[in-house]
Amino acid sequence: MKKQFVDHFSLINENFKQVFAELFGGGVAEVGLEDEQDVLACGIEIRAQPPGKKLQNLLLLSGGERCLTAIALLFAILRLRPTPFCVLDEVEAALDDANVLRFTDYIRRHSEDAQYILVTHRKGTMEAADRLYGVTMQERGISRILSMKLGE
Amino acid sequence: MKKQFVDHFSLINENFKQVFAELFGGGVAEVGLEDEQDVLACGIEIRAQPPGKKLQNLLLLSGGERCLTAIALLFAILRLRPTPFCVLDEVEAALDDANVLRFTDYIRRHSEDAQYILVTHRKGTMEAADRLYGVTMQERGISRILSMKLGE
Amino acid sequence: MHLKSLEIQGFKSFPERTFIEFHKGVTAIIGPNGSGKSNITDAIRWVLGEQSVKTLRGSRMEDVIFTGTQSRRAMGFAEVTMVIDNSDGKLPLDYTEVQVTRRLYRSGESEYLLNKTTCRLRDITTLFMDTGLGRDGYSIVGQGRVDDILSHRSEDRRRVFEEAS
Amino acid sequence: MHLKSLEIQGFKSFPERTFIEFHKGVTAIIGPNGSGKSNITDAIRWVLGEQSVKTLRGSRMEDVIFTGTQSRRAMGFAEVTMVIDNSDGKLPLDYTEVQVTRRLYRSGESEYLLNKTTCRLRDITTLFMDTGLGRDGYSIVGQGRVDDILSHRSEDRRRVFEEAS
Ligand SMILES: Nc1ncnc2c1ncn2[C@@H]1O[C@H](COP(=O)(O)OP(=O)(O)OP(=O)(O)O)[C@@H](O)[C@H]1O
Ligand SMILES: Nc1ncnc2c1ncn2[C@@H]1O[C@H](COP(=O)(O)OP(=O)(O)OP(=O)(O)O)[C@@H](O)[C@H]1O
Ligand SMILES: [Mg+2]
Ligand SMILES: [Mg+2]
User: Fold this and answer.
1) What pairing do the DSSP bridges indicate for beta strands C2-9 and B144-148?
2) C66: Cβ below 6 Å to ligand 1?
3) Residues C121, C49 contacting (CB under 8 angstroms)
4) Average pLDDT for consecutive 10-residue bins of chain B (152 residues)?
5) Is residue A37's pLDDT more than 90?
6) Does the distance separating the beta carbons of D13 and B137 come in below 8 Å?
């Protein structure tokens, strides 16, 4: 029980280092257990260092850097234990266009056999989709769905 | 003291109704005092009803609708008591492009003698600016500022 | 195992029976502010057994039933049906296709169906336990919630790691 | 009364002396994620007397001093100077131009200057009281914070209404 958690935790840590570096184009990140003596109940620390910058408190990261770090950690966990499908509702809102591209490139590189449902306002995310559904409220307060061809 | 607060509060309420309708292209909104008997200490309620929809709990509004409602309330307060300058850091992140345009149109219509500093990722906001400053990190971790000509 | 389709009727801003087919790969859901995109996310959570009205952005469970507009009356019930492809047998049921339905009436009465057979809410939540789609799952990230995984409340974060382990 | 200029040195990601001129109307600050835009917002708050490290996104006040990069050493102090056009006399000082400077050394020592004369932090915060730029002001909305005005914590909201009244 304890051994399984520690093994899985270190796998998530491995994944996190990789995914972070992939999304940030470099840099270092890791997750750590706050108390090695109390592995089954202690908290989990996160350390993230974008490329070229010094390691600082997560609070000092920018809105976009925090967002990308959170996405990296989510993907690290999913890599260990994939879920049948993944629903992400505007998770890339804080990312600039260049980082949206890194986010969607990562999804496309790692999406064989995976299923992603992304609610989005961002062009980059729309362009990376295999399918597009548009939600409209032609009649006020009443939602309807249109299947949209890509390139429309 | 109490009279002044009540008078100003009802002016903010008036402004809020107008600004909300301007930003949403219709709809109804108001602020109310939770306890008319305890005007100097009671809480303040907010009710917002986008055009065509029924009045519901604020929680049920969409991310973008809540954002625009918050902006309307801020502008309502500023109309009563303008501040020398106003710094808004990515407040329009949750708005779709059509609503960003309503947001910037409002600012431009009401900005004589006002001074707005808007940190933004959105094209619509950039296009509405009189001046543009670009922040860059050519050298990793070191910020520099460039004054940019509009239309660049 | 993957999501095949979702059917929504009377749920939040979807009074009309609405059918959405899902495929493998990446599906993007787009539309203007307030059009109903996050309501689809809520429908997915709800049919999987979500019981927290806070997570569903309401104050009472009744809030998920279409409440009417200035030109259309409220509905008496909300219903969401999800069809899942189970050909890899990940779900512990002897079916290659699993259909889950949740229905809530304004009276407060609820109905739950698994492959058209009435069941209890517990049967649905138990079915999805250990898939990452459950209560402590990490597969659904709501609007404005992605930062939570970094937040100080590291007990929540802890739970996500445990769910994945 | 309006903002004329801001000069930043050693503050967060701005080790080099950086001068920004502001004009009436709408100024947009743009740039990639992590480039330093919100740090400018923080600099404006800080020079106006912000004391909450939480609002400045740090854990200690020392966090606002440039901490170095992998290729440049940390700095020993942070300094921000704001020049304000006071020709309408809104600020209770007999000057048409008001210059505010705040400096913090790694030793923990602070310096505050009003028109190049040493003063206390209290003199700065008192100066901006009643302008909406102070602690309970509503003129600076930080990243991710616009929703706060709608939040349940209606005592905060209350304070904003009182500040404006
Ligand atoms: N029970 C209900 N009956 C009718 N309408 C409802 C109900 N619950 C929510 N709504 C409406 O659904 C709308 C919100 O939809 P949703 O949150 O899905 O928008 P969205 O497309 O995600 O928008 P955004 O891009 O701003 O996030 C609100 O306008 C709300 O009034
Ligand atoms: N004391 C410091 N010394 C050096 N760098 C710092 C210091 N404090 C913060 N930073 C750096 O400043 C960067 C964040 O800057 P800022 O929050 O202004 O970004 P931003 O341009 O607003 O980005 P976003 O678009 O993502 O919101 C972080 O990468 C952080 O490491
Ligand atoms: Mg939404
Ligand atoms: Mg920022």
Assistant:
1) unpaired
2) yes
3) yes
4) 85 96 96 83 89 92 97 94 94 97 95 91 95 96 89 51
5) no
6) yes
Q: How far is the CA of B97 from the centre of ligand 3 (A)?
A: 14
Q: How far is the CA of D132 from the centre of ligand 1 (A)?
A: 34
Any ligand 1 atom below 6 A from CB of C144: no
Give the torsion sign (CA, A14, A107, A95, B147). positive
Rounded to a whole number of angstroms, the distance from the CA of A50 to the nearest CA of chain B is 9
Q: What's the pLDDT tens digit per position in C38-93?
A: 999 999 999 999 999 999 999 999 999 999 998 999 999 999 999 999 999 989 89
The bound ligand whose nearest atom lies closest to the alpha carbon of C14 is 1
Q: How far apart are the C-alpha atoms of A84 and A78, rounded to whole Å?
A: 10
* D141–chain B nearest CA distance, Å: 5
How far apart, in whole angstroms, are the C-alpha atoms of residue D37 and residue A64?
11
CA dihedral (D55, D58, D61, D66) positive or negative: negative
Nearest CA in chain A to B122: A96
**B86-89, strands of its sheet edge to edge:** B144-148, B131-136, D25-30, B115-119, B86-89, D140-141
Render pLDDT for D135-161 as a digit per residue (tens, 0 to 9).
Answer: 778 899 999 999 999 986 666 677 778
The pLDDT of C27-43, averaged and rounded, is 97
Burial (CB < 10 A; 0-12, 13-18, 19+), residue B28, is: middle
